[in-house]
Structures are given as structure tokens and as C-alpha cells.
Amino acid sequence: MTPEEMIVACCTDLAGKVRGKAFPAVQFEKRMKRGIGWTPTNVQITCFDTIAESPFGSLGDLVLIPDEAAHVRVELGGGIEHFALGDISYTDGRPWEFCTRSILKEALERLRKVAGVSLLGAFEHEFQFRGGSSPLGDAFSTASFRAERRLAETLVAAMRAAGLEPDTFMKEYGAGQYEVTMGPSRGVAIADHSTILRELLRAILAESGREITFTPIRDPAGVGNGVHIHLSFLRGEHPATWDPNGKHELSTLAGQFIAGVLKYLESIVALTAPSAISYLRLTPHRWSAAFNNLGFRDREASVRICPVSELSDVAKAAQFNFEFRAADASASPHLQLAAIVHAGVQGIEEGLPTPDATTEDLSLLEQDALEALGIVRLPQSLPEALERFARNGTVTGWFPDGFADVYVKHKRGEMAFLEGRTEQEVCALYEQTY
Fold first, then answer.
1. Which helix (H) or strand (E) element contains residue 153?
2. 6-97: CATH topology
3. pTM summary value
């Protein structure tokens, strides 16, 4: 009997997981119209496969509709990786309020209406191999690349086949840690491509029986894995982020957007870095982010103005971008990007001025000095982050009715699974699930 090819219709959920249903690939055209059945309470499945308190119970029916624009079919050595990201809708076609991809689409539409621009961007991912350890002295080395050359070259080919633009692959500083980057995409594809890249990487390694983790941090004393989100704007087809006469060379639009992100960062970090261990990483001197600051080429700033190359054949306006660093892979890329976009658009609507860029070690400043600079320490635990999210009516108002309550209950369900466990045990659990 000849096996029949299947395809998975999938989505990213509140737990940052990619979940879906498979069906025969020959049905793809029909499923793009009618979708495949989905259950509302699925939204409350935590990253540990417990079910948090749900307002839906056993009631309701939805459909998950795959999108041709996010359709991936890649032939790998041992088989085929075939899936399509999609949107969760009611059975009459209306977007479901808790579909992360639909939430991102709404945020991007708000950006278009308010500012007349579209978003260009790309996610950078750090990951670590599970099991084993790195040889001493292999950080950023040619030997460490050589050890994973086959993986890198297979991944690059798979990315191209899936419509992603490969960029770099390198051995990072941490034990068994690597980083992979890609070229920019536009709109919802920014988050789609982040998801696709993670899935391709896992699929390639599964063929050889190897496992990786994108967990925010494996060891409380070790190096964490971040997600860095590079962003810029296009007005039509023209770059709209750089202004040679602007503060820090940012256009007024970009400066207001960044100001909004920083103003509301303490209330959206529950969405961009949403695990219990994310806050072990978001501390000073971990090259992550601990304060709501803008930095110029500063890898400890929450938002970093990135360098441009005078040697490049790409115009400076097209190169110029900024990077959001208070994020990790325990979140849905779609929900992360939606939160950032909403915060930025809020800054545009409020006409906030371009922030000053910090140049000092903020962890050494007293509280009154931080307040004078308009700087706040980001939440230092998931419960604190959720509390700041839930109490900020402006932030919760960006999302559909009921979203904030469901999201907080989801995260409380996740934390309930961790009760009574040591920090090391909690890290081990997240390493397994991400």
C-alpha cells in the first residue's frame, strides 16, 4: 500500500506552541474554503498540556482555515514536511477573537490606518542542542560551524524552498547554542516566517534523532535564548524609518512608534516574554533587556537602533532598522508582534517624542535617577508581568473583548503546573516543552 501525503493546518497559540490537524493533501483547495474543525477550549491548553480555566468548557465549534500564503512543502532527506499556517474562524467565517494570527492582522491594519505604512521585519532565533556539551573554546568558532555545517546547509535549502530568505547561521556563546537569522518579510509574513523557520529546524533535526530547545533559559546560571525582532517601515515601497535630520536618525514616525513601545513595554512583556523563566533572562548583564530603554547599538537595551554598513550596496534608508529585544520563543510570534505594533501605534496616536538613547549601565542607577530619565525596571516575574498587563486598560483595550481575562487565566494555569518545583526543575520542564 502506498502512503498518502498529509498536510497539517496549524496556528500558533497562547502557549507559543504550533498546533493543528492533519488531512489528506489532495483536500487542500477545499480546506482553504471550509477549514477543518477546531475547539474553543483548545486556547487554554498550556505549554505543559494542562487545560487552564476556560470560559468555553465543552461548548462551541470553530474552523481552522489554512492560508496559501503560509503554505510550506519541503522535501527533506527522509520525507516531506508539509503544513500551512492559518486563521481560526467561527463557522460563519468571522475571525475568532483568540486567533493570534487574526489579532496580528488587526494590529497591522491599525498601523496602516493611523500611519499609512506597512511593517517590514524579521525574527532572529537562538537555540541550544539538548544533551551533551560544547567543547571548551568553541564560541563563534569555525570548528563549531564545521560541526553543524550539514545542518546549516540543509536548513538554508529548506528555507529557500519554503520562501524564506536565509541570512546567517553561527555558533553562539552558550553551551551548544546557535543562532539563525533570515531576511525581512512584510506584514503578517514576519511572524509566519518565524514560525516556519522553527518548524523546519525541528523537522530537519528530527530525521537524525537530535533535539533542540528554544527555551528562554536552560540553567539559571547559564546563558539564555532570546528572540530579537528587527523592524522598519515602508510607505508604499519606500523606506520610512530613517531621517538623516531626525533624533538618532529616526523618522518622526519611527521615533513615536519606539516611544510607544517603551511606554507600554512593562505591560506587554507578559505577551512577549511570557514564561515563568523568561524573567531569569530579563536581568541586567545577560545581554537581554531589563529596563524600558532605547539604546544605540546597545545589546542590553529593550529597543536597539541597529548599525548600518557604509560598505553595503543597499541604501542606508533601506538598511536602517531597530530591534526589539525583550522577547523569547515561549511566545507566539504573532502575538508578540501584535503587542509591539499596538504599543507603537499608540505612541504615534499620542504624538510621543523620540526617546533619548541611554549610554550608561542602568542597573547602577538609583531609583530617583531612573525616574528622572523616565526609565522603569521591567517586571521581574511572570505574576508581576501579568498584573501590569491586566491593570493597564489601554493595553487590554487593544485586544478583543475577553482576551485579557482568558490570557491571564491561561498563564495562571501554566504556573499552577509549576507549583512546588525548584528553579532547576522548572527550567528543565520548559527546556522539554520549547
1. helix 149-161
2. Ubiquitin-like (UB roll) (3.10.20)
3. 0.96
